[in-house]
Amino acid sequence: MTDLYAVFGNPINHSKSPHIHRHFAEQTGQDMTYTKQQVAPGEFDQAATEFFDKGGKGLNITVPFKLDAYSFAARLTPRARRAGAVNTLALQTDGTVLGDNTDGIGMIHDMHNLGWELRGKRVLILGAGGAVRGILQPLLEQEPQEVAIVNRTHHKAEQLANGFHDLGDVRALTLEALAGQQFDILINGTSASLHGELPPLPDDLLAPGACCYDMMYSAEPTVFLQWAQTHGAAAVADGLGMLIGQAAEAFYLWRQIRPEVVPVITAMRRQMTEKNQNHK
Ligand code: NDP
Q1: By the 8 A CB rule, do 258 and 249 touch?
Q2: Which of 66, 103, 140, 264 is most deeply buried (CB count within 10 A of its CB)?
């Protein structure tokens, strides 16, 4: 029988997840369908219960339901517990539902695919929202020399640093304290890119050979990646590989098969570029 999966969110029309999982299913020969479902605010529990009652095997969860999914799961993986949010639900053989968070590991795998080394590196993260919380444990497991977090609302950066300091050298910095410091890896985890904005960064922030990653993805370089290119970054990447990487980890949790991400990233990048050119 064909196994049923879906992504829940609101809005959901823009979601690329069905497309990505179709690629994975074809590539690995899995008999599964994957749909997207818009869920009304306050109706997550009911919709998820109905989905699993009718034989659904797993869900991806996107904005604004990652906290609802966290509460819904009967059990949590350690990384989901640390992230405080769930983006993947998986039906277990005993009938219970496991909650995981694959966003962070998706980004780490993307950096590995890009050939970026994290061990021993000085990492600066911009932003202290849900996405940054989700990447901190997998990032600290790579044993960087240090992780600094800068956020517009400073106390949120401090809260995050306090919540993860047992896993490595992680601290909150103010924007002013960045003066005179240099980093090897910069990660933009703010949603400022969505509005074409960028926190005011010192001109000499990038160490020689620095790599810059924007969690947001788009057909054209984000404002942050444009800044990186004009300030001497050796390599830049946006979050398309993270999106596909988190989907691959969810797929692995559900099917115990690891799909290849690089051909899917290449195909989707080409589609995004072509679509963008057609709109010009
Ligand atoms: P949240 O709303 O939880 O957090 C937003 C963060 O951005 C906060 O730290 C906020 O600061 C900061 N911010 C917003 N606007 C500005 C601004 N104008 N200047 C400076 N800082 C700003 O969002 P998420 O953490 O869920 O998402 C963050 C980004 O990550 C988004 O671009 C999202 O698309 C991307 N993302 C990508 C994924 C992928 O798979 N590629 C997965 C998940 C997220 P403050 O605390 O002061 O409000």
Answers
A1: no
A2: 103
Nearest CA to ligand 1 atom 31: 191
Q: Which of 61, 86, 126, 191 has the most ligand 1 atoms within 8 A of CB, as the residue to mutate? A: 191
Position 109, amino acid = H
Q: What is the pLDDT of residues 88-124, one digit of tens each?
A: 999 999 999 999 999 999 999 999 999 999 999 999 9
Rounded distance, CA 136 to CA 179, Å?
24
H-state helical runs in the chain: 17-28, 44-53, 66-72, 78-83, 103-113, 130-140, 154-164, 223-230, 240-255, 262-278
**Most informative mutation of 67, 108, 109, 190 for ligand 1 (most atoms within 8 A of CB):** 190
What is the distance between the alpha carbons of residues 271 and 267, in angstroms, rounded to a whole number? 6
* Beta carbon of 129 within 6 Å of any ligand 1 atom: yes
Q: For strand 88-91 and strand 58-61, is the pairing parallel, antiparallel, or unpaired?
A: antiparallel
HSE, side-chain direction, 13 A CA sphere, residue 89 = 33
Ligand 1 atom closest to residue 195's alpha carbon, by position in its atom list:
18
Q: All domains of the chain, ordered by start, with CATH?
A: 3-101+241-279 (3.40.50.10860), 116-237 (3.40.50.720)
Options 66, 156, 275, 280, the catalytic residue? 66
Does residue 47 contact residue 64 with C-beta atoms inside 8 Å?
Answer: no
Under 8 Å between Cβ of 273 and 47: no
Summarised one tens digit per residue, pLDDT across range 182-219 is 999 999 999 998 888 999 999 999 999 999 999 999 99
243 lines ligand 1 (CB under 6 A): yes
Of 257, 258, 250, nearest to 69 by C-alpha is 250
